[in-house]
Q: What sequence folds into this?
């Protein structure tokens, strides 16, 4: 396996003779696909199993599922290939790793929200690896660090950049020297496995704040239009031919506008082919849940709808749709990750808004970052079609789930 100079620093910083040996922690940040995650994972396990035996360690991601998918599924086979013994006990969220007579336990944790800090209390670690630490709440990170009280313990962090006011950037990255921490910034050039063509592909994929963060690796503020690359005037017509699968996404509103999108799959591309949009202020009246359900049936138009993805706060509307026989999925409502995923799909051409969706196209031009929020946030205006589109992407396309089709009939 070939490593870049930056990766070799990560692999060897903890070894006697390294100029960084006295450091108590390491942070690797920077561009996506820059090779920081793999080399840090390899280094963490090499360090743990060469320095300790019979010790416990923590391995943390935003969720356990994402950690297994993005880190452990790639890392554990490579450890086995270089002579480690690896036993994974998924029900216990435990990985037991042995090397040259040393054996240690690595506990897997998810740091998704503020309540996650309770999961890690009461356990003592000899070291901890926090993957995508900028996506974790501060309380979880601080609790994880506090668990490392064994003599010789070290802290390992990696992440992609967020905004310049992020607490981790201000306290750990800007304060790395004060915290006796080695800070390394990665670019795509630090990953020898990436060809120039792949680097160019990633450069084309992102724009605006996501380009500056994920390609250039900068901690910059979000500003301007959210989808600044999108040209509503170039929206295509609905393509001719058959669609193989259908979904409806819903942002429910009574006083605020309601927006429903009809999505069809054709040749690997998802098209927003039609929509329903109702603004009670503009129309000078409110619609009932029954009227909204009728509007959804009209939008579906007798098609086989795999699922209706609905704003999770719309409890009464969700219950009514289920009583009418719809297969309903509560939407994933993580705004920032949803925007990033939607942006990726729109730029790559795998998600297309057709010219039949006037309100969605209008909002694409008006949907902007809130510069006064003090953190990454969008203005809560012109965001209803934007929300239903994000629900569809985050709940259906990001999970890869394909619910069994339920035929839309008159309800």
A:
């Amino acid at each position: 396996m070939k490593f870049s100079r930056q990766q070799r620093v990560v692999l060897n910083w903890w070894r006697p003779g390294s100029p960084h040996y006295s450091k108590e922690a390491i942070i690797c940040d920077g561009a996506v696909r820059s090779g920081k995650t793999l080399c840090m994972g390899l280094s963490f396990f090499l360090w743990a199993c060469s320095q300790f035996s019979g010790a416990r360690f923590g391995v943390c991601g935003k969720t356990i599922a994402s950690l297994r998918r993005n880190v452990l599924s790639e890392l554990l086979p490579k450890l086995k290939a270089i002579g480690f013994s690896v036993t994974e006990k998924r029900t216990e969220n435990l990985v037991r790793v042995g090397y040259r007579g040393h054996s240690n336990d690595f506990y897997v944790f998810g740091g998704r929200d503020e309540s996650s800090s309770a999961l890690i209390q009461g356990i003592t670690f000899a070291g901890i690896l926090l993957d995508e630490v900028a996506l974790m709440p501060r309380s979880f990170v601080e609790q994880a660090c506090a668990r490392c009280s064994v003599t010789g313990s070290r802290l390992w962090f990696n992440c992609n950049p967020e905004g310049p006011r992020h607490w981790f950037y201000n306290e750990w990255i800007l304060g790395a020297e004060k915290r006796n921490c080695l800070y390394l910034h990665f670019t795509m050039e630090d990953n020898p496995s990436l060809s120039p063509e792949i680097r160019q592909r990633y450069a084309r994929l992102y724009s605006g704040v996501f380009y500056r963060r994920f390609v250039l690796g900068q901690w910059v503020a979000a500003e301007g239009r959210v989808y600044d690359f999108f040209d509503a005037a170039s929206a295509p017509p609905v393509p001719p031919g058959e669609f193989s699968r259908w979904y409806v996404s819903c942002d429910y509103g009574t006083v605020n506008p309601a927006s429903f999108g009809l999505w069809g799959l054709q040749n690997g591309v998802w098209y927003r082919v039609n929509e329903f949009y109702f603004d009670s202020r503009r129309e000078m009246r409110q619609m009932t849940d029954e009227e909204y359900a009728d509007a959804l049936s009209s939008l579906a138009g007798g098609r086989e709808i795999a699922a209706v993805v609905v704003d999770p706060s719309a409890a009464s509307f969700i219950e009514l749709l289920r009583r009418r026989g719809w297969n309903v999925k509560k939407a994933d409502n993580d705004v920032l990750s949803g925007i990033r995923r939607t942006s990726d799909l729109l730029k790559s051409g795998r998600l297309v808004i057709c010219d039949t969706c006037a309100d969605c196209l209008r909002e694409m031009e008006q949907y902007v970052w809130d510069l006064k929020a003090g953190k990454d946030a969008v203005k809560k205006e012109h965001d209803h079609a934007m929300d239903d589109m994000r629900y569809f992407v985050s709940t259906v396309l990001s999970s890869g789930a394909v619910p069994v089709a339920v035929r839309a009939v008159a309800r």
Q: What stands out?
A: The first strand starts at residue 25 and ends at 30. The first helix runs from residue 5 to 12. The chain has a mean pLDDT of 92. The two ends are 59 Å apart (CA to CA).
